[in-house]
Each structure stands twice: as C-alpha cells, then as structure tokens.
Amino acid sequence: MSDYVAGTTQSQQQPPAGSHRAAPPPFVPPPGVTPDGGASTISDAVRDYTLRVRQGELGSLPAVLGIILLTVVFAIAEPSLFSVAGLSDVLQQAAAPITLAMGLVFVLLLGEIDLSAAVVGSTAAAFGVIWTVKHGTPWYIAIILAMLFGTVCGTALGWLRARLGIPSFVVTLAAYLSFQGVLDFIAGTSSGLSMGNNSVFFNLIGGRLSQVGGWIFLVVFVLGYALVKWFQRADRTRQNLPVEAMSIFWLRVGALVIGGAVFVYLCNANELTLSWQKREGLYLGGVPWAVPIIAVLGVILTFVLSKTRYGRHIYAVGGNTEAARRAGIPVRAVRTSVFAICSGMAAISGLFLGSQVGAVNATSSLGNTLLLGVAAAVIGGTSLAGGRGRVMDAVLGGIALTILIFGMSDLLKNSDNAQWEDIVTGVVLLIAAGVDATSRHAGRASG
Amino acid sequence: MNENEPILRMRGINKSFGPVSVLKGVDFEAHAGEVTALVGDNGAGKSTLVKCIGGTYTVDDGVIEFNGAPVRVHGPRDASALGIEIVYQDLALCDNLDIVQNMFLGRERRTSRSRTLDETTMERLAGETLASLSVRTVKSVRQKVSSLSGGQRQTVAIAKAVLWNSKVVILDEPTAALGVAQTAEVLRLVRSLADQGVAVILISHNMNDVLQVSDRIAALYLGQMAAQVKRSEVTHTQIVELITAGRSGHLGLQLEDALSTNGAVI
Questions:
Q1: What is the pLDDT of residues B198-221, one digit of tens each?
Q2: Residue A290 C-alpha from the chain's centroid
Q3: CA A115 to chain centre
Q4: How far is the C-alpha of A354 from the C-alpha of A365, rounded, in Å?
Q5: What span, in angstroms and rounded, lies between the C-alpha atoms of B36 and B202?
Q6: How buried is B11 (Cβ within 10 angstroms: 0-12 exposed, 13-18 middle, 19+ buried)?
Q7: CA distance A244 to A331
Q8: CA B254 to chain centroid
Q9: pLDDT score of B239 more than 50
Q10: Could you tell me the pLDDT band of residue B37, with boundaries at 50, 70 and 90?
Q11: ipTM here
Q12: Is the distance from CB of B231 to CB of B216 less than 8 angstroms?
C-alpha cells in the first residue's frame, strides 16, 4: 500500500479540477457544534434558560416575578383584593395600557418613541364614536375607520421621522400637543363624547363572554397553540434538526391547559356575593371581552413580528440600521410603518380607555396613559434602545403594572391615591429602564 | 473557463476626488480559488480600489472585466448581482439577531405555501455552510451575535459569503482586532474559502498573515500598482520594500514612475 495517502479527508475537500465549486459535503454536525433550537431534556431547558438570564437576556422574567410577588403581597395586605371581582377588574383596567403597549413595542423595537400615541388613539376613538353615534355606522366599520384614522396619523409621523429625519421625540411631542387641541374641539365638553348606552363600544370593557363561551375560547386557544407547536416540531424533525423533548412540549401544553382552566373557572364564578344578590339569583361573571380581543391582537402581531420577513426586518433595523441598509432592507419604509402600526393600535386602546367611562374625554388620555403604555412594554422586557422586545412583553408588563396600581389604590383608599399612583408608576418605569440598561451592558460579549 | 484566466481583472483604473488623484492607472486581477493579498501603506488607495470593485465608487476611467467580459459596476447591487461580496471591518452584523438570521438577512427564505419565514430550512443551510468550512468554534447557530467573540463574528461574516455562492469575496482587515488563536482560525477560514473555488481578496497590514495565507500579492504604492506577484516569488523584505518605496530591485515601479508620483522627492 505504498500509494496510501494519509491526508485523505483533506484531499477530498479539494474541488475537482475544472469545477468551480465543490459540492458541499452532507451535513454532519462536527463534535462541539450542536445547532440547537430545542433542548433535549427538561434539565437542559432549565440550564439554557438560566444561562440566557445570566447573559442579560431577562426577557419577561421581571414582569412574571412582579405579577406573582405583587399578587402575594397585596393578597396578604388587603385580602379583599384577592377576589374573583379583583381578577376581572385588573383585566378590564389593563386592557387600555396593554393594547397601547402592543403598538408601542413596534416603535420601541426601532429605538424610537411615540409620545403622541395615547392622544392620537383617543382622537381616533372619538372619530369612530362620531361615526356610530351620529351617523349610525355599524360598530365594526367604525372600528376599522378609527384604526384607519390612527394609521394615517401614524404614517404622517413616521414619514416626518424617516424622510425628514426629525427626531421622533420632537415629532411626536408636537403631535401630542396638536392632537390634544383637536381632541378638545371634538370631545371638549364636560361629559365628553358619549359612546351611547349598550352600544358595542360602551360594552367593550364591561362586556363578558358567557360561561360556555369562555370554555370554548380556552379550547380554541389551547388547540391552536398545540397545533402550531406540533407542526413546528414536525418540520424540524423532517429537516433533521434537533427538537425539543416531547416532555417539554407536553409540559407547555399542560401548563396552558391547567392555567387556562383555573383562569376561566375564576372568571366564570359569580362576583355578586352579597346575600340579597344571591337570593335574587343575580349573576355577574364570565371572561371579559378584553381577554379574547387582546389574545387575537396578540397572536396577529406576534405572527407579524416573528414569522414574516417584515417582522425580521424590524428587528434588523432596530439592531443595526447600517447592516440592515447594506442587506437591502428598505429602512425608511420600515421606520415609517412602525409608527403607523403603533397609532393604529392606539385607536383600539383609545376605545378601551373611553369605554371605561362610556365616553371619550378630552382629558382621558392626558397624564400618565402613555407613560403606562411605555412602562408596560419596558417592564415586560422590551428595550428602550431598540432591537429587543415582543408583543407578549406588553401583555405581561401591562398586567403587572395594573396589579401594582390597583393594589396601591386599594391599600391607600382612605387617602387621595391618584398622586401615589403617579409616583409609583414613575418610579417603576425608572426601575424597568434601569434593569433594561444594565442587562444590555451584561449581554455584551468580551473579546 | 480557462484556469489561468482571472475571474476579476481591472485595467488602467483611474479614480480621483476633485483635484486629488487616488488611483493612477491601476491594473489588478484576482483568480478563482486563490487568495490575493492587497497590501500598501495608509493612503495607498487600497480602500478606494476595493470600493470601486464593490460599486460604492464608480471608476473615472478604466475597464473592469468579470469572467472575461467587461462589466459596469454602478452600485453595491450591481456588485452583489455579479457575486462580489465585501466583508467590511465593522462587519455589518445585527447583534440582536442570531447567526442564522444574520446569514440570511435581507434574503430570508419563505415557505412556498404560507409565505412565512422558513426557519428550519434556513437553520439547516446555515449549519451546513458552517460545517463545510469546518467551523468548530461556534456552539450553536441559534446563538445571538452579541454573545460571539470578534473571531466568531468574522467567521459568520465569511460564512455568509459562502452561503450566497459569492464568486469574489473581499475581506477588509479581517484579523485587525483579533488575538493569536482567533487570527489562526480566521486565516484557516480564508484558506478554505479559496479552496472552495472563491476568489478571495485580502486586505491586510499584517505581513505574517499575508505571507501565510496568500497565493498572490498586489502592492499598491501611492495610487499605483507597484507589483502583482506570486507569493512564492518574493521574500518578506521585498514586500516591505514594495510597500514603503514602491520598488524592490527589478520589481516594482521604475525610478521615473516613482519620481512622477513623488514629485520632487529624490
């Protein structure tokens, strides 16, 4: 065997003479390369997660911990809060900041800010209410018109930012002032612009699903989640990529089933617990409308962010604008579009906000409405510097924040608690932004 | 294609910015499957020449031939359509995205049915590309780029060029900020990139890197091509002389050429 060549592996990698490029060898992960995407066991999953947290990717951890901690603290301090009525109250109060924050996530992902979102949202809501109340337009068309109004305003703001290069802080601050004036014209009366009794808009906050409706919603939601996860898994298996262990899959689905069942059961329980109410057989309960509305919006927006090219490009522009430009991404169009989405979502938030009192007020979007939206997104784990954030952050952050404010006002019910709410909200926003800044620092690799 | 025919040939390239003439009749060629080092002192015109290839600048005068046919490069899109990829020093990666997402940035694959992102195919192709380059330093293709070291980032940028079947890859100072081990890894990658049939143009100030990895060396001197020679035909000293003086013995610019560039200096 004199012609035996020791370095056969190397000579095989040489391109054959005449051919421009050797065919890539079949993919065999070399030792040490484990292109993951799924942990193989539960302990792996836990280890991966702790590693990510240590590297500064806190995600929604602060919000989830906050929800648990606040619930426990307030339940001990003020047991009346920890009731069935308290649960639906929190959900109904959280609807406006959550929907606002869902739109703000898009703007924040690009490292921009939209200070005008709340006011533009209320103006758009007023626009929609005028169509239903004054012109008798069906509610679903009025919602579309309101969102369209918001989207047009947002596009204009985005254009000013992206095309003319005016900082978003200035553009949206100017819009905040101007639209506040417009809103004063439309809804400047003492009682505001009434949504009309028993209209769909009026019931947006107070409306409940029937008991059966709540369960159907849960089943559809869980089935949808399980199917999506299942198909993703099957797809990865087909391409020979590592997949999550089945145990983790069932753990996720199981947690969703149990959590969801407890949630729907509690929502369905009768909130009217006084003896005369029971005697009369009165019932108030059911999953608030806000829950399925936010769930549907959340699924749509999450799909856009994580499954479409456009969503990927938003993250790219937020992470490194220059890299995105070189990759051929239309940076200006992306930057304009996020403002449009934000203001469109703000219109829905404005309707929720108005529905809390049954009318769109010129004063309802003043003060800390916008602050609450930004705080919800940031507490949920969205970075103010851009590039990091999810729609889910807005939901978790909004719930955590609402529990905090709700609990505060319950604890301090003898004092005038609005001041305390403002102070606490401000401090919490500052803490969340601080956590965001430090975690970004920790995430930077050395070398 | 004739093996000896260069894939990229530039002849008589002139480029000036206002009164300042940066490139003066530069000839340059790059061959498929070879590493061509482009060396020269600061201000010699390396970056300008590269930007002319990449379409950032258009040449004032001269011919660019690609695969034997004259081409016009009027913008970065023209260049990438030809299969020319430039890996800049600042790498142009998004820190907040993972390796797969960065490698497919701007050219994401979608499933044919739902038109949504085809994550699994992209992940598989990215993994295959890294494996074909025998990359072992990257733990997972789903790692965020922010958690990668400088050498690993360079690896991702180079692998991106392979993934997109680039014909000519230009690396701008790929080892400038790297440690010893990382430099060795990147140089190995540069070599295997050329072995896959790519024409690699390596810009570097580091003589050791140039001597270790290149097949040909092109030395620019004050906007003129002092010499383009085979690596085997020159010594370290000769290259240094070509860079600093524009000539070395019989190689490089002749005295009158050097004088015309240098003006009054003798």
A1: 899 999 888 888 888 999 999 988
A2: 14
A3: 18
A4: 9
A5: 6
A6: middle
A7: 35
A8: 28
A9: yes
A10: very high
A11: 0.79
A12: yes
Question: For residue range A182-221, what is the model confidence (pLDDT) as tens digits?
Answer: 998 888 776 778 887 767 888 888 888 888 999 999 999 9
Closest residue in B to A236 (Cα–Cα):
B120
A11 at interface of B, judged by CB pairs closer than 8 A = no
Cβ–Cβ < 8 Å for B184, B174:
no
B168-196 pLDDT, tens digit each: 999 988 888 788 888 888 898 899 888 88
Is residue A357 classed exposed, middle or buried when 0-12, 13-18 and 19+ CB atoms within 10 A define those classes? middle
Q: Which among B3, B134, B148 has the least Cβ separation from residue A445?
A: B148
d(C-alpha B36, C-alpha B30), whole Å: 6
Closest partner CB to B195 (pick from A13, A306, A313): A13
**Is the Cβ–Cβ distance between B158 and B128 less than 8 Å?**
no
Report helix, strand or coil for B60.
coil
| Highest mean pLDDT of the ranges A58-67, A234-243, B22-31 | B22-31
Helix or strand (DSSP H, E) at A352: helix A331-355
Q: Select from B108, B106, B96 the least CA-distant residue to B144.
A: B96
Chosen for mutation from B5, B93, B95 (greatest number of chain A CBs closer than 10 Å) is B95
Q: Is there a contact between B95 and A387 if contact means CB atoms under 8 Å apart?
A: yes
Interfacial B residues in 215-244 facing A (CB < 8 Å): none
Both structure tokens of A223 = 């089935």
* Residue A167 phi, psi dihedral angles, 5° rounding: -55, 140
